[in-house]
Amino acid sequence: LWLDCDAVVSNITFHMDELTNSVSSDKQMIVIWGHDFFNLGVMLLRSSDWSEWLMQKMLERRDWIEWMVGKWRDQKSFRMLLNEYPDIVNKVFVVDPPTLQAYPRWWVPGTFIYHQVGCKSGRGWGSSMGTGL
């Protein structure tokens, strides 16, 4: 399970098998669809050679990504990988929010992960989190 610095587990009683049991064995990554692409801020990867390969490919771009201008650098890197290896998309299983995670507008009590996008942009935790958690 990968969580960005702006995501937190908000339901410690959630059982991962509630999510993973519904996913076919050919899928290796579980994410939600973000604004216009897969949101990689919270992703669940199957323990497999393929997942290890994917992480290696993502990390190979680490130095370049760190100096990239703009937001969502991990998504930009993933788009590049999809261009290079289009079959990756066949390994991705997309769930609806708040199944895996929820942005503030979708979060309800019981949601597994609360994702307050923007920890580096200055919006931080206090801006819209409220007292619901």
From TrEMBL:
Q: Which domain of life is it from?
A: Eukaryota
The family database entries (Pfam families) matched by this protein are listed as:
Glyco_transf_34
Q: Which keywords label this protein?
A: Glycosyltransferase, Transferase
Query: Could you tell me one molecular function GO term of this UniProt entry?
Result: glycosyltransferase activity
Q: Which InterPro entries match?
A: Glyco_trans_34 (IPR008630), Nucleotide-diphossugar_trans (IPR029044)
GO annotation (BP), single: protein N-linked glycosylation
GO CC, any one term:
Golgi membrane
- Which PANTHER family would you find in this protein's record? ALPHA-1,2-GALACTOSYLTRANSFERASE, ALPHA-1,6-MANNOSYLTRANSFERASE MNN11-RELATED
* Family (UniProt): Belongs to the glycosyltransferase 34 family.
The identity of this protein, by name, is Hexosyltransferase
Tell me the lineage of the source organism: Eukaryota, Viridiplantae, Chlorophyta, Pyramimonadophyceae, Pyramimonadales
